[in-house]
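Appendix B. One record, verbatim.
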Amino acid sequence: MAFELKQNLRLSQQLIMTPQLQQAIKLLQLSRLELVDTINQEMEENPLLEETLPDEGGEDEIHLACEDDVQSIEKQDVKVIERTEELTGEGDGREEFDWSNYLEDYGPVGVTYDRKDAEAPAWDNIITESQSLTEHLMWQMKLSPFTEEEVQVGSQIVGNLDNNGYLCATVQEISQLENVTEEFVEAVLKKVQEFDPAGVAARDLQECLLIQARMLGVKNPVIEVIIKEHLKDLELKNYVHIARKLKIPLREVENAVLLISNMEPKPGSMFSEEKVQSIIPDVYVVKSGDEYKIILNDDGMPRLRISNFYREVMAGVGGHGDHNEEENGKKYIRDKVQSATWLIKSIQQRQKTIYKVAESIVKFQKDFFDRGISFLKPLILRDVADDVEMHESTISRVVTNKYMHSPRGIFEMKYFFGSSIQRTTSGETIASKSVKEEIKNLVNQEDPKKPYSDCEIVDLLKQKGINIARRTVAKYREMMGVLPSSKRKKYF
């Protein structure tokens, strides 16, 4: 078999992502907090990047470096800072210092502190640290007459509690870890179960409720029997079956259930360490007359510029020192200028893209902003992509982890997109979120003693011109966390 070399000319299209495009795509899908972290990291790595101070004038204009001549980076006018008068004499700046403004500026976010108001809270009531369940239990253990060995076992018990306050480890496992008998662990466990909150360190829901009943001093034997033997019927609200099994009047069962329903099934949840994160919107939608204006939120966003110091260094390089060192210095500064310029332009492009997408969303969903969620229109990414002349993937990156503050509240930009359902009476379509809202309103308005079943909800929606199947109602109800009619029913 003979081998030979041939030359073939072939024309093809290929997608190549430049570093600038990769950086722009990366910044576009970042949330606001992630973007600030990325900017701060770039400022640490690139010495040519610096933040414009709020009291300074306009941002310096960026001039790109020419590849052949680094000297083409033009100098910008440096703002002249006037010298302040020298402080002389006694008590300079003491009486004139405005402490109320100082506390206002440096106080906790969202807290207004005015000492002129006699009812203003003290600082120690504002700045507090939440106590965890473990710390709360250990504090009680130190105040209790525990021996050193009991404290050791008690610490193992407390350390093996989950977020709801239930014991995850078995008594046998704890006894093996601490090299003590199971009876000793049981005795310590009984003592820990007497701590606050009531029902803590229980091994299951039944034990948790029994501990709370004991601590409440309940002497009704019906309550203990229901907790021990009829928890399933209690969950299903099958009170008639409980009364028939216990051979007691239904009213007596209802009184016992009323007390049990006031107990806490998750005693440790009040000490949850999850902190509520405040949402900082990326876009503000403000109503002006009959129209809505889009305002980008730039508060807290670092404003970047190229350092004037390195501009002057570049302009002054040459004529001194080793030639190779000068060339290396020029190359280093040229690369950093280019990197800084790409970052600044990418951030500006990101803001413009978010503005365009937010403007398009407001245009499509104007009825929602005017009249409420019932008028939310079906919207898909392709609709906005065609409107702003961008790709669907770009729109998807823009609406991810971005929030919009509007007169109707704060919404994730992804909220305004959803599937559609066709009405029966007319050819119009309605957003699935509007259907969910209708179901929610029907459930809120129902009679607690006779809640609507899924079939009844289907019939009520048909009267409003919305034709959906029963399984769709069940799916939407589960998505909203609404219980079935059998569990929503209230007997008292």
